[in-house]
Design a protein that fits this description.
The chain has helices at residues 2-6, 20-30, 43-52, 69-77, 94-100, 115-133, 163-174, 182-188, 197-211, and strands spanning 12-16, 36-40, 57-61, 85-89, 107-110, 136-138, 143-146, 151-154, 157-160, 179-180, 217-219, 223-225. With 228 residues, the chain is an alpha/beta fold.
């Protein structure tokens, strides 16, 4: 885990936040983990910073005083699908979460930011940056996942994945040491579409038939785990 945060030491964050007092206090925390933090109070300032500096991670408030951070992210994603984005909000907004599905957000944090949630979000950003630079990632037992071609390989044999399989293996790649809950599967694999418990059970059975009984383990009452 510490290694993932170490990867951020030479990285830069663009921080879009119009509450200057909150921004000032939060930047002090960001500075512990990254080389540079560029602060913008408006979307125009954020776009100017993107044009003039190399940005590795974007952290944006959603509800700015006179603007909507979602507009900024949607416009950015038209030409940039790889930069990790963390969004901040003063309250949980279910409508926003559904709008945000196509935007491939790395994390959604509520204010005030909890330290452990921020650390986890930064780890996910680090992992995403690493995967973008190294599209083939080692999983276990000689399994390799190519995040660009969406193929799973083992000892020279390649498996072409369908959409749900690819989304599930990508979820595993980002959470190799964590329990994968049904909520995580609902968000990442079903993309918040209707999902029953039986659908998940049957999906896991198909994964095991295709890649082996020990490919994924069941943790009773909690979810699934890739490694034990």
């Amino acid at each position: 885990m510490a290694e993932r945060l170490e990867r951020l030491k030479d990285k830069s964050i663009l921080f879009l936040e119009d509450n200057l007092e909150f921004a000032k206090n939060t930047i002090v925390l960001f500075d512990v983990f990254v080389k540079n933090v560029y602060h913008a109070a408006t979307i125009q300032e954020a776009e100017t910073l993107l044009q003039n500096f190399p940005i590795d991670i974007i952290i944006s408030d959603i509800k700015l005083k006179k603007e909507n951070g979602l507009d900024f992210i949607q416009n950015l994603r038209k030409g940039n699908t790889h930069t990790p984005i963390i969004v901040l909000s003063g309250h949980k907004d279910e409508d926003f979460l559904f709008q945000a599905i196509p935007l491939k957000l790395t994390a959604y944090l509520l204010k005030p930011i909890k330290y452990d949630e921020l650390i986890n979000a930064l780890r996910l950003c680090s992992e995403a940056i690493f995967l973008n630079q190294n599209p083939q990632i080692a999983l276990k037992e000689n399994w390799l996942f190519n995040i660009e071609t969406k193929t799973l390989e083992q000892e020279g044999k390649a498996f072409v994945l369908n959409k749900k399989e690819a989304l599930f293996i990508e979820l595993i790649a980002h959470n190799r040491d964590r329990i994968i809950t049904k909520e995580m599967i609902h968000a990442s694999v079903w993309e918040f579409e209707e999902m029953s418990d039986s659908a998940v059970t049957n999906f896991i059975l198909r994964i095991r038939r295709r890649f082996g009984k020990t490919f994924i383990y069941t943790i009773p009452d909690l979810g699934y785990r890739f490694k034990l």
